[in-house]
Amino acid sequence: MEEFKEMNEMDSLYEETIKPLHPGDIVKGTVVSVSDKEVMVDVGYKAEGVIPISEFKEPPQVGDEIEVFVRSLAGESGIQLSKKEADKRRQWRDILKAKEEGTYVKGVITKRVKGGYRVKIGEYEAFLPMSQADVKPIDDPDSLVGVESYFKVLDAKLEGKNPNIVVSRKEYLREELEREKEEFWSRMVEGKVIEGQVKKVMDYGAFINVGPVDGLLHINDISWKRIKHPSEVLREGQRVWVKVLSFDREKEKISLGMKQLTPDPWENIEEKYPVGSRVKGKVSGITDYGAFVELEEGVEGLIHISEFSWTKRIKHPSEVLKEGDEVECVVIDIKPDERRLSLSLKRVEENPWENVEEKYPVGAVVSAKVKKILANRVIVELEEGVEAFINADDLTWSKRLKKPSDILQVGDELKVKILEVDGKRRRIRAGLKQIMPDPWQEFVSKYKEGDVVKGEVTSVTPFGAFVKLTDEVEGLVHVSQLDDKKVKAPEDVVKVGDILTAVITKIDNENRKVSLSVKEYKLMKEKEEVEKMMSSSSSSGDSVFKLGDILKKAIEKSE
Questions:
Q1: 416, 390 Cβ separation under 8 angstroms
Q2: Among the four residues 89, 115, 389, 432, which has the most C-beta atoms within 10 Å?
Q3: 116 Cβ contact list (under 8 Å, min separation 6)
Q4: What is the pLDDT of residue 467?
Protein backbone atom coordinates (compact mmCIF):
# COMPACT_ATOMS: atom_id res chain seq x y z
CA MET A 1 0.00 0.00 0.00
CA GLU A 2 2.75 2.42 0.93
CA GLU A 3 4.57 1.80 -2.37
CA PHE A 4 1.38 2.29 -4.42
CA LYS A 5 0.71 5.56 -2.65
CA GLU A 6 4.24 6.86 -3.39
CA MET A 7 3.89 5.95 -7.08
CA ASN A 8 0.61 7.87 -7.33
CA GLU A 9 2.21 10.88 -5.71
CA MET A 10 5.14 10.75 -8.18
CA ASP A 11 2.77 10.42 -11.16
CA SER A 12 0.80 13.35 -9.89
CA LEU A 13 3.96 15.45 -9.51
CA TYR A 14 5.09 14.49 -13.06
CA GLU A 15 1.74 15.48 -14.50
CA GLU A 16 2.02 18.86 -12.83
CA THR A 17 5.45 19.53 -14.44
CA ILE A 18 4.19 18.85 -17.98
CA LYS A 19 3.08 21.99 -19.82
CA PRO A 20 -0.37 22.01 -21.33
CA LEU A 21 0.11 21.89 -25.14
CA HIS A 22 -2.47 22.10 -27.92
CA PRO A 23 -2.27 22.08 -31.71
CA GLY A 24 -2.01 25.66 -32.95
CA ASP A 25 -0.01 26.89 -29.96
CA ILE A 26 3.18 28.89 -30.40
CA VAL A 27 5.65 27.98 -27.70
CA LYS A 28 9.33 28.27 -26.96
CA GLY A 29 11.58 25.23 -27.04
CA THR A 30 15.21 24.23 -26.80
CA VAL A 31 17.12 22.48 -29.57
CA VAL A 32 18.35 19.12 -28.23
CA SER A 33 19.70 17.54 -31.43
CA VAL A 34 20.30 18.37 -35.12
CA SER A 35 20.57 15.89 -37.98
CA ASP A 36 20.64 16.15 -41.77
CA LYS A 37 16.88 15.75 -41.96
CA GLU A 38 15.38 17.10 -38.74
CA VAL A 39 15.78 19.11 -35.59
CA MET A 40 14.62 17.77 -32.22
CA VAL A 41 13.18 20.41 -29.86
CA ASP A 42 12.24 20.06 -26.18
CA VAL A 43 9.03 22.06 -25.63
CA GLY A 44 8.46 20.71 -22.04
CA TYR A 45 5.98 18.04 -23.08
CA LYS A 46 5.99 14.29 -22.64
CA ALA A 47 7.87 13.87 -25.84
CA GLU A 48 10.22 16.00 -27.90
CA GLY A 49 9.00 17.70 -31.05
CA VAL A 50 10.33 17.35 -34.59
CA ILE A 51 10.98 20.08 -37.19
CA PRO A 52 12.23 19.37 -40.76
CA ILE A 53 15.73 20.84 -41.30
CA SER A 54 14.42 22.46 -44.50
CA GLU A 55 12.53 25.05 -42.44
CA PHE A 56 15.79 26.59 -41.30
CA LYS A 57 17.84 28.96 -43.44
CA GLU A 58 20.86 27.87 -41.43
CA PRO A 59 21.00 24.79 -39.14
CA PRO A 60 20.55 25.76 -35.46
CA GLN A 61 22.94 24.87 -32.69
CA VAL A 62 22.13 22.48 -29.81
CA GLY A 63 20.94 24.59 -26.90
CA ASP A 64 19.42 27.33 -29.09
CA GLU A 65 16.07 28.55 -27.87
CA ILE A 66 13.56 28.99 -30.68
CA GLU A 67 9.88 29.71 -31.09
CA VAL A 68 7.82 26.95 -32.74
CA PHE A 69 4.27 26.23 -33.90
CA VAL A 70 2.54 23.04 -32.69
CA ARG A 71 1.10 21.26 -35.72
CA SER A 72 0.12 17.98 -34.01
CA LEU A 73 0.64 16.18 -30.70
CA ALA A 74 0.46 12.71 -32.20
CA GLY A 75 2.46 11.44 -35.09
CA GLU A 76 4.60 8.60 -36.25
CA SER A 77 7.75 10.42 -35.17
CA GLY A 78 6.34 12.31 -32.23
CA ILE A 79 5.08 15.90 -31.79
CA GLN A 80 5.02 17.75 -35.14
CA LEU A 81 6.40 21.29 -34.86
CA SER A 82 7.06 24.09 -37.40
CA LYS A 83 9.60 26.85 -37.16
CA LYS A 84 8.39 28.41 -40.42
CA GLU A 85 4.77 28.59 -39.34
CA ALA A 86 5.75 30.07 -35.98
CA ASP A 87 7.75 32.78 -37.73
CA LYS A 88 4.91 33.49 -40.12
CA ARG A 89 2.32 33.81 -37.39
CA ARG A 90 4.61 35.96 -35.30
CA GLN A 91 5.21 38.17 -38.36
CA TRP A 92 1.47 38.57 -38.93
CA ARG A 93 1.11 39.48 -35.28
CA ASP A 94 3.88 42.10 -35.69
CA ILE A 95 2.19 43.47 -38.83
CA LEU A 96 -1.13 43.93 -37.04
CA LYS A 97 0.62 45.51 -34.10
CA ALA A 98 2.50 47.91 -36.41
CA LYS A 99 -0.80 48.92 -38.02
CA GLU A 100 -2.44 49.61 -34.65
CA GLU A 101 0.52 51.48 -33.16
CA GLY A 102 1.64 53.26 -36.37
CA THR A 103 5.13 51.75 -36.23
CA TYR A 104 7.15 50.34 -39.10
CA VAL A 105 7.96 46.94 -40.51
CA LYS A 106 11.01 46.00 -42.54
CA GLY A 107 10.72 44.66 -46.06
CA VAL A 108 12.20 44.44 -49.55
CA ILE A 109 10.64 45.73 -52.78
CA THR A 110 10.70 42.65 -54.99
CA LYS A 111 9.03 43.65 -58.26
CA ARG A 112 6.89 46.16 -60.12
CA VAL A 113 3.19 45.43 -60.59
CA LYS A 114 0.32 47.39 -61.99
CA GLY A 115 -0.08 50.56 -59.96
CA GLY A 116 2.89 49.96 -57.68
CA TYR A 117 5.21 47.31 -56.25
CA ARG A 118 5.25 44.00 -54.39
CA VAL A 119 7.00 44.13 -51.02
CA LYS A 120 8.29 41.03 -49.19
CA ILE A 121 7.76 41.34 -45.41
CA GLY A 122 9.08 38.10 -43.93
CA GLU A 123 6.78 35.36 -45.29
CA TYR A 124 4.13 37.83 -46.44
CA GLU A 125 3.69 39.92 -49.56
CA ALA A 126 2.32 43.47 -49.36
CA PHE A 127 1.24 45.98 -51.99
CA LEU A 128 3.05 49.31 -52.21
CA PRO A 129 1.10 51.87 -54.31
CA MET A 130 3.26 53.97 -56.66
CA SER A 131 2.01 57.13 -54.95
CA GLN A 132 3.35 55.80 -51.63
CA ALA A 133 6.75 54.70 -52.91
CA ASP A 134 8.70 57.93 -52.36
CA VAL A 135 8.43 61.51 -51.14
CA LYS A 136 9.45 62.86 -54.58
CA PRO A 137 8.53 61.92 -58.15
CA ILE A 138 10.28 58.76 -59.31
CA ASP A 139 12.18 59.22 -62.58
CA ASP A 140 13.05 55.54 -62.95
CA PRO A 141 10.44 53.24 -61.28
CA ASP A 142 12.59 50.13 -61.81
CA SER A 143 15.33 51.66 -59.68
CA LEU A 144 13.37 50.83 -56.50
CA VAL A 145 13.24 47.09 -57.19
CA GLY A 146 15.55 45.35 -54.72
CA VAL A 147 15.54 48.26 -52.26
CA GLU A 148 15.31 47.28 -48.58
CA SER A 149 13.43 49.76 -46.45
CA TYR A 150 10.99 50.30 -43.62
CA PHE A 151 7.28 50.64 -44.35
CA LYS A 152 4.22 51.91 -42.55
CA VAL A 153 1.28 49.48 -42.57
CA LEU A 154 -1.75 51.27 -44.00
CA ASP A 155 -4.02 48.21 -44.00
CA ALA A 156 -3.78 44.53 -42.97
CA LYS A 157 -6.63 42.02 -43.04
CA LEU A 158 -7.33 38.43 -43.92
CA GLU A 159 -9.49 37.76 -46.95
CA GLY A 160 -10.01 34.02 -46.82
CA LYS A 161 -6.63 32.34 -46.51
CA ASN A 162 -4.77 35.22 -48.23
CA PRO A 163 -3.92 38.31 -46.20
CA ASN A 164 -4.34 41.74 -47.81
CA ILE A 165 -1.56 44.13 -46.75
CA VAL A 166 -1.04 47.70 -48.01
CA VAL A 167 2.09 49.61 -46.98
CA SER A 168 3.65 53.05 -47.48
CA ARG A 169 7.34 53.81 -47.87
CA LYS A 170 6.54 57.49 -48.41
CA GLU A 171 5.25 57.91 -44.87
CA TYR A 172 8.39 56.34 -43.46
CA LEU A 173 10.66 58.51 -45.62
CA ARG A 174 8.72 61.63 -44.71
CA GLU A 175 8.99 61.02 -40.99
CA GLU A 176 12.62 60.00 -41.33
CA LEU A 177 13.31 63.17 -43.31
CA GLU A 178 11.67 65.29 -40.63
CA ARG A 179 13.78 63.58 -38.00
CA GLU A 180 16.94 64.13 -40.03
CA LYS A 181 15.98 67.77 -40.61
CA GLU A 182 15.43 68.32 -36.92
CA GLU A 183 18.82 66.83 -36.16
CA PHE A 184 20.41 68.75 -39.06
CA TRP A 185 19.08 72.15 -38.02
CA SER A 186 19.96 71.55 -34.37
CA ARG A 187 23.62 71.25 -35.40
CA MET A 188 23.61 74.13 -37.94
CA VAL A 189 25.76 77.22 -37.32
CA GLU A 190 27.06 79.93 -39.65
CA GLY A 191 30.62 79.33 -40.75
CA LYS A 192 30.32 75.56 -40.53
CA VAL A 193 32.12 73.62 -43.27
CA ILE A 194 30.15 70.65 -44.62
CA GLU A 195 30.37 68.22 -47.52
CA GLY A 196 27.64 68.13 -50.13
CA GLN A 197 26.80 66.92 -53.60
CA VAL A 198 26.03 69.11 -56.60
CA LYS A 199 22.36 68.45 -57.33
CA LYS A 200 21.65 70.90 -60.15
CA VAL A 201 23.68 73.55 -61.99
CA MET A 202 21.84 76.73 -63.01
CA ASP A 203 22.89 79.96 -64.76
CA TYR A 204 22.93 81.82 -61.44
CA GLY A 205 24.60 79.14 -59.31
CA ALA A 206 24.15 75.55 -58.15
CA PHE A 207 21.98 73.67 -55.65
CA ILE A 208 24.04 71.56 -53.26
CA ASN A 209 22.50 68.68 -51.34
CA VAL A 210 23.89 68.76 -47.82
CA GLY A 211 21.72 66.04 -46.29
CA PRO A 212 17.99 66.50 -45.71
CA VAL A 213 18.00 69.94 -47.41
CA ASP A 214 19.48 71.65 -50.48
CA GLY A 215 21.52 74.84 -50.21
CA LEU A 216 22.15 77.50 -52.84
CA LEU A 217 25.71 78.17 -53.94
CA HIS A 218 25.49 81.47 -55.85
CA ILE A 219 27.77 81.99 -58.85
CA ASN A 220 29.49 84.88 -57.05
CA ASP A 221 30.44 82.54 -54.17
CA ILE A 222 31.88 79.72 -56.27
CA SER A 223 35.30 81.21 -56.98
CA TRP A 224 37.29 84.35 -56.28
CA LYS A 225 37.99 84.61 -59.99
CA ARG A 226 35.35 85.77 -62.45
CA ILE A 227 33.44 82.91 -64.11
CA LYS A 228 30.80 83.19 -66.82
CA HIS A 229 28.85 80.07 -65.82
CA PRO A 230 28.93 77.69 -62.81
CA SER A 231 29.50 74.75 -65.16
CA GLU A 232 33.07 76.02 -65.62
CA VAL A 233 33.76 74.76 -62.07
CA LEU A 234 30.94 72.39 -61.10
CA ARG A 235 29.17 69.35 -62.53
CA GLU A 236 26.09 67.50 -61.32
CA GLY A 237 26.91 64.65 -58.94
CA GLN A 238 30.24 66.19 -57.89
CA ARG A 239 31.15 66.04 -54.19
CA VAL A 240 32.25 69.41 -52.82
CA TRP A 241 33.08 71.07 -49.54
CA VAL A 242 31.14 74.27 -48.80
CA LYS A 243 30.86 76.83 -46.05
CA VAL A 244 27.55 77.90 -44.50
CA LEU A 245 27.24 81.65 -45.07
CA SER A 246 23.71 82.07 -43.69
CA PHE A 247 20.56 80.05 -43.07
CA ASP A 248 16.86 80.43 -42.27
CA ARG A 249 15.52 77.44 -40.36
CA GLU A 250 11.86 78.40 -40.73
CA LYS A 251 12.10 78.77 -44.50
CA GLU A 252 14.62 75.92 -44.74
CA LYS A 253 17.04 77.99 -46.78
CA ILE A 254 20.83 77.84 -46.68
CA SER A 255 23.30 80.09 -48.47
CA LEU A 256 26.60 78.35 -49.20
CA GLY A 257 30.04 79.44 -50.35
CA MET A 258 33.05 77.67 -51.88
CA LYS A 259 35.45 80.53 -52.38
CA GLN A 260 35.21 81.38 -48.67
CA LEU A 261 37.20 78.21 -47.94
CA THR A 262 40.32 79.95 -49.30
CA PRO A 263 41.86 83.33 -48.36
CA ASP A 264 40.48 86.40 -50.13
CA PRO A 265 43.10 87.40 -52.74
CA TRP A 266 41.96 91.04 -52.42
CA GLU A 267 43.30 91.28 -48.88
CA ASN A 268 46.28 93.67 -48.82
CA ILE A 269 45.76 94.23 -52.55
CA GLU A 270 47.27 97.72 -52.37
CA GLU A 271 50.47 96.28 -50.97
CA LYS A 272 50.70 93.55 -53.60
CA TYR A 273 49.89 95.82 -56.55
CA PRO A 274 50.70 99.45 -55.64
CA VAL A 275 49.62 102.22 -58.02
CA GLY A 276 52.36 102.85 -60.56
CA SER A 277 53.80 99.34 -60.42
CA ARG A 278 54.27 97.20 -63.52
CA VAL A 279 52.45 93.87 -63.48
CA LYS A 280 52.04 90.92 -65.82
CA GLY A 281 48.87 88.95 -66.43
CA LYS A 282 46.76 87.03 -68.90
CA VAL A 283 43.84 88.49 -70.86
CA SER A 284 40.75 86.74 -69.46
CA GLY A 285 38.01 88.60 -71.29
CA ILE A 286 37.34 91.14 -74.06
CA THR A 287 34.44 93.64 -73.99
CA ASP A 288 33.47 96.62 -76.12
CA TYR A 289 34.92 98.99 -73.54
CA GLY A 290 38.16 97.23 -72.67
CA ALA A 291 39.94 94.02 -71.68
CA PHE A 292 40.09 92.13 -68.36
CA VAL A 293 43.49 90.87 -67.24
CA GLU A 294 43.91 88.17 -64.57
CA LEU A 295 46.90 88.96 -62.36
CA GLU A 296 46.31 85.94 -60.11
CA GLU A 297 43.39 83.64 -59.43
CA GLY A 298 40.59 85.84 -58.17
CA VAL A 299 42.24 89.17 -59.03
CA GLU A 300 41.37 90.83 -62.33
CA GLY A 301 42.04 94.31 -63.58
CA LEU A 302 40.45 96.27 -66.41
CA ILE A 303 42.34 97.98 -69.21
CA HIS A 304 39.89 100.58 -70.47
CA ILE A 305 39.97 101.14 -74.22
CA SER A 306 41.26 104.68 -73.59
CA GLU A 307 44.37 103.15 -71.93
CA PHE A 308 45.39 101.03 -74.94
CA SER A 309 47.48 103.55 -76.88
CA TRP A 310 48.87 107.06 -76.57
CA THR A 311 48.32 107.81 -80.21
CA LYS A 312 46.17 105.29 -82.06
CA ARG A 313 42.39 105.50 -82.11
CA ILE A 314 41.31 102.00 -81.05
CA LYS A 315 37.77 101.20 -82.14
CA HIS A 316 37.60 97.83 -80.36
CA PRO A 317 40.00 96.12 -77.90
CA SER A 318 40.12 93.04 -80.15
CA GLU A 319 42.21 95.08 -82.61
CA VAL A 320 45.06 94.86 -80.10
CA LEU A 321 44.41 91.95 -77.71
CA LYS A 322 42.76 88.53 -77.60
CA GLU A 323 41.90 86.17 -74.76
CA GLY A 324 44.92 84.27 -73.50
CA ASP A 325 47.47 86.97 -74.41
CA GLU A 326 50.21 87.61 -71.85
CA VAL A 327 50.49 91.38 -71.26
CA GLU A 328 52.47 93.82 -69.17
CA CYS A 329 50.50 96.72 -67.68
CA VAL A 330 50.81 99.57 -65.22
CA VAL A 331 48.49 99.79 -62.19
CA ILE A 332 46.79 103.21 -62.33
CA ASP A 333 44.02 102.89 -59.71
CA ILE A 334 42.80 100.52 -56.97
CA LYS A 335 39.44 100.53 -55.18
CA PRO A 336 39.62 97.59 -52.69
CA ASP A 337 36.08 98.14 -51.34
CA GLU A 338 34.67 97.88 -54.86
CA ARG A 339 37.17 95.14 -55.82
CA ARG A 340 38.18 97.20 -58.84
CA LEU A 341 41.68 97.50 -60.24
CA SER A 342 42.43 99.75 -63.24
CA LEU A 343 45.33 98.97 -65.56
CA SER A 344 47.02 100.75 -68.46
CA LEU A 345 48.67 99.25 -71.50
CA LYS A 346 49.91 102.48 -73.00
CA ARG A 347 51.71 103.67 -69.86
CA VAL A 348 54.24 100.90 -70.19
CA GLU A 349 55.70 103.09 -72.97
CA GLU A 350 56.71 106.76 -72.76
CA ASN A 351 54.04 109.27 -73.82
CA PRO A 352 55.34 110.73 -77.10
CA TRP A 353 53.28 113.88 -76.50
CA GLU A 354 55.17 114.83 -73.35
CA ASN A 355 57.26 117.99 -73.94
CA VAL A 356 56.00 118.14 -77.53
CA GLU A 357 56.20 121.98 -77.43
CA GLU A 358 59.93 121.68 -76.78
CA LYS A 359 60.54 119.06 -79.46
CA TYR A 360 58.46 120.88 -82.10
CA PRO A 361 58.53 124.63 -81.39
CA VAL A 362 56.55 127.03 -83.58
CA GLY A 363 58.61 128.06 -86.59
CA ALA A 364 60.70 124.88 -86.69
CA VAL A 365 61.11 123.12 -90.03
CA VAL A 366 60.91 119.34 -89.56
CA SER A 367 60.64 116.17 -91.61
CA ALA A 368 57.25 114.53 -92.03
CA LYS A 369 55.58 111.67 -93.88
CA VAL A 370 52.12 111.84 -95.43
CA LYS A 371 49.83 109.35 -93.60
CA LYS A 372 46.38 110.32 -94.79
CA ILE A 373 44.87 112.69 -97.35
CA LEU A 374 41.43 114.15 -96.63
CA ALA A 375 39.19 116.49 -98.58
CA ASN A 376 40.47 119.68 -96.94
CA ARG A 377 43.59 118.66 -95.05
CA VAL A 378 46.55 116.29 -94.95
CA ILE A 379 47.69 114.24 -91.92
CA VAL A 380 51.46 113.85 -91.60
CA GLU A 381 53.52 111.84 -89.11
CA LEU A 382 56.35 113.67 -87.36
CA GLU A 383 57.42 110.59 -85.36
CA GLU A 384 55.75 107.37 -84.26
CA GLY A 385 52.69 108.39 -82.31
CA VAL A 386 52.92 112.11 -83.10
CA GLU A 387 50.95 113.49 -86.02
CA ALA A 388 50.26 116.94 -87.38
CA PHE A 389 47.73 118.28 -89.86
CA ILE A 390 48.18 120.64 -92.79
CA ASN A 391 45.13 122.59 -93.91
CA ALA A 392 44.57 122.82 -97.65
CA ASP A 393 45.24 126.57 -97.47
CA ASP A 394 48.71 125.85 -96.10
CA LEU A 395 49.73 123.41 -98.83
CA THR A 396 50.52 125.92 -101.58
CA TRP A 397 50.53 129.64 -102.22
CA SER A 398 48.40 129.06 -105.28
CA LYS A 399 44.69 129.73 -105.01
CA ARG A 400 43.91 127.30 -107.78
CA LEU A 401 44.46 124.06 -105.75
CA LYS A 402 41.23 122.01 -105.95
CA LYS A 403 42.15 119.14 -103.58
CA PRO A 404 45.27 118.08 -101.62
CA SER A 405 45.66 114.87 -103.62
CA ASP A 406 46.51 117.02 -106.67
CA ILE A 407 49.99 117.64 -105.27
CA LEU A 408 50.54 114.96 -102.55
CA GLN A 409 50.29 111.17 -102.13
CA VAL A 410 50.31 108.91 -99.06
CA GLY A 411 53.88 108.00 -98.23
CA ASP A 412 55.42 111.24 -99.55
CA GLU A 413 58.25 112.50 -97.38
CA LEU A 414 58.56 116.27 -97.10
CA LYS A 415 59.64 119.20 -94.98
CA VAL A 416 56.99 121.18 -93.08
CA LYS A 417 56.97 124.21 -90.85
CA ILE A 418 55.37 124.07 -87.38
CA LEU A 419 52.65 126.74 -87.16
CA GLU A 420 50.77 125.85 -83.93
CA VAL A 421 51.39 123.42 -81.01
CA ASP A 422 48.94 122.43 -78.26
CA GLY A 423 50.32 119.51 -76.23
CA LYS A 424 47.31 119.20 -73.93
CA ARG A 425 44.93 118.80 -76.85
CA ARG A 426 47.51 116.79 -78.81
CA ARG A 427 47.19 119.15 -81.71
CA ILE A 428 49.93 120.33 -84.08
CA ARG A 429 49.27 122.43 -87.16
CA ALA A 430 51.96 122.54 -89.82
CA GLY A 431 52.39 124.21 -93.18
CA LEU A 432 54.00 123.14 -96.44
CA LYS A 433 53.90 126.41 -98.35
CA GLN A 434 55.56 128.29 -95.49
CA ILE A 435 58.92 126.65 -96.20
CA MET A 436 58.95 128.22 -99.69
CA PRO A 437 59.28 131.94 -100.61
CA ASP A 438 56.00 133.85 -100.67
CA PRO A 439 55.35 134.67 -104.35
CA TRP A 440 53.15 137.57 -103.31
CA GLN A 441 55.99 139.26 -101.47
CA GLU A 442 58.21 138.74 -104.46
CA PHE A 443 55.54 140.31 -106.67
CA VAL A 444 54.93 143.40 -104.52
CA SER A 445 58.65 143.92 -104.17
CA LYS A 446 58.95 144.04 -107.95
CA TYR A 447 55.73 145.80 -109.02
CA LYS A 448 53.77 148.84 -107.85
CA GLU A 449 50.53 150.57 -108.82
CA GLY A 450 50.78 152.26 -112.25
CA ASP A 451 53.19 149.67 -113.65
CA VAL A 452 52.36 148.10 -116.98
CA VAL A 453 52.25 144.28 -116.97
CA LYS A 454 51.54 141.60 -119.49
CA GLY A 455 49.90 138.19 -118.89
CA GLU A 456 47.83 135.32 -120.21
CA VAL A 457 44.06 135.17 -119.63
CA THR A 458 43.35 132.10 -117.41
CA SER A 459 39.59 132.44 -117.04
CA VAL A 460 36.73 134.64 -118.18
CA THR A 461 33.79 135.41 -115.87
CA PRO A 462 30.69 137.64 -116.22
CA PHE A 463 32.46 140.31 -114.17
CA GLY A 464 35.81 140.26 -115.95
CA ALA A 465 38.91 138.26 -116.80
CA PHE A 466 41.74 136.80 -114.67
CA VAL A 467 45.25 137.30 -115.98
CA LYS A 468 48.31 135.28 -114.87
CA LEU A 469 51.07 137.71 -113.90
CA THR A 470 53.49 135.20 -112.29
CA ASP A 471 53.29 131.47 -111.48
CA GLU A 472 51.41 132.17 -108.25
CA VAL A 473 49.91 135.68 -108.72
CA GLU A 474 46.89 136.61 -110.83
CA GLY A 475 45.24 139.97 -111.51
CA LEU A 476 41.63 140.79 -112.32
CA VAL A 477 40.57 143.01 -115.20
CA HIS A 478 37.06 144.13 -114.37
CA VAL A 479 34.57 144.19 -117.27
CA SER A 480 34.56 148.01 -117.07
CA GLN A 481 38.34 148.02 -117.57
CA LEU A 482 38.61 145.59 -120.48
CA ASP A 483 38.53 148.31 -123.15
CA ASP A 484 38.42 152.05 -123.58
CA LYS A 485 34.93 151.70 -124.92
CA LYS A 486 31.91 150.11 -123.21
CA VAL A 487 31.92 146.26 -123.06
CA LYS A 488 28.68 144.38 -122.42
CA ALA A 489 30.14 140.88 -122.01
CA PRO A 490 33.82 140.06 -121.35
CA GLU A 491 33.76 137.11 -123.77
CA ASP A 492 32.98 139.59 -126.58
CA VAL A 493 36.47 141.05 -126.36
CA VAL A 494 38.66 138.41 -124.66
CA LYS A 495 39.09 134.65 -124.36
CA VAL A 496 41.21 132.21 -122.37
CA GLY A 497 44.74 132.15 -123.70
CA ASP A 498 44.78 135.76 -124.93
CA ILE A 499 47.77 137.85 -123.94
CA LEU A 500 46.70 141.13 -122.36
CA THR A 501 48.72 144.21 -121.49
CA ALA A 502 47.29 146.27 -118.66
CA VAL A 503 48.10 148.80 -115.99
CA ILE A 504 48.18 147.83 -112.29
CA THR A 505 45.53 150.10 -110.82
CA LYS A 506 45.50 148.67 -107.25
CA ILE A 507 47.51 146.27 -105.06
CA ASP A 508 45.55 144.96 -102.01
CA ASN A 509 48.17 143.48 -99.64
CA GLU A 510 45.69 142.41 -97.01
CA ASN A 511 43.61 140.32 -99.41
CA ARG A 512 46.50 139.58 -101.80
CA LYS A 513 44.61 140.95 -104.84
CA VAL A 514 45.75 142.84 -107.93
CA SER A 515 43.39 145.04 -110.01
CA LEU A 516 44.29 145.58 -113.68
CA SER A 517 42.98 147.91 -116.38
CA VAL A 518 43.36 147.51 -120.18
CA LYS A 519 41.40 150.71 -120.54
CA GLU A 520 43.98 152.70 -118.58
CA TYR A 521 46.74 151.11 -120.57
CA LYS A 522 45.13 152.21 -123.85
CA LEU A 523 44.52 155.70 -122.58
CA MET A 524 48.12 155.82 -121.46
CA LYS A 525 49.31 154.75 -124.86
CA GLU A 526 47.06 157.31 -126.55
CA LYS A 527 48.40 160.02 -124.30
CA GLU A 528 51.92 158.99 -125.13
CA GLU A 529 51.03 159.05 -128.84
CA VAL A 530 49.50 162.55 -128.55
CA GLU A 531 52.53 163.84 -126.74
CA LYS A 532 54.78 162.33 -129.31
CA MET A 533 52.77 163.84 -132.21
CA MET A 534 52.65 167.22 -130.50
CA SER A 535 56.37 167.18 -130.10
CA SER A 536 56.82 166.20 -133.74
CA SER A 537 54.34 168.84 -135.13
CA SER A 538 55.96 171.69 -133.18
CA SER A 539 59.20 171.07 -134.93
CA SER A 540 57.58 170.90 -138.40
CA GLY A 541 55.12 173.86 -138.07
CA ASP A 542 52.04 171.70 -138.74
CA SER A 543 50.86 171.58 -135.14
CA VAL A 544 47.34 172.88 -135.71
CA PHE A 545 46.58 170.40 -138.46
CA LYS A 546 48.13 167.46 -136.61
CA LEU A 547 46.37 168.25 -133.35
CA GLY A 548 43.06 168.41 -135.10
CA ASP A 549 43.59 165.00 -136.63
CA ILE A 550 44.41 163.49 -133.28
CA LEU A 551 41.34 164.93 -131.56
CA LYS A 552 39.17 163.72 -134.41
CA LYS A 553 40.45 160.18 -133.98
CA ALA A 554 39.88 160.32 -130.22
CA ILE A 555 36.26 161.44 -130.69
CA GLU A 556 35.65 158.65 -133.22
CA LYS A 557 36.89 156.00 -130.73
CA SER A 558 34.74 157.29 -127.91
CA GLU A 559 31.67 157.08 -130.16
A1: yes
A2: 432
A3: 127, 128, 129, 130, 131, 132, 133
A4: 92
Rounded to whole angstroms, the Cα distance separating 479 from 423 reads 50
The dotted CATH code for 102-174 is 2.40.50.140
Cβ-contact 135, 96 below 8 angstroms: no
pTM: 0.48
Helix-helix angle 518-540:543-558, to 10 degrees: 160
Question: What share of the chain in percent tops pLDDT 70?
Answer: 90
Distance CA 96, CA 525 (A): 150
Contacts of 37 (CB under 8 A, 6+ apart): 52, 53
CATH topology of domain 356-435: OB fold (Dihydrolipoamide Acetyltransferase, E2P) (2.40.50)
What's 21-86's CATH class?
mainly beta
Fold of the domain spanning 188-261? OB fold (Dihydrolipoamide Acetyltransferase, E2P) (2.40.50)
The residue ranking higher by pLDDT, 65 or 190, is 190
Which residue from 224, 343, 329, 336 is spatially nearest to 269, judged by alpha carbons?
336
Q: If you write DSSP's letter for every residue of 343-358 in order, what string do you get?
A: EESGGGS--TTTTHHH
Which of 232, 191, 199 has its CA nearest to residue 217?
199
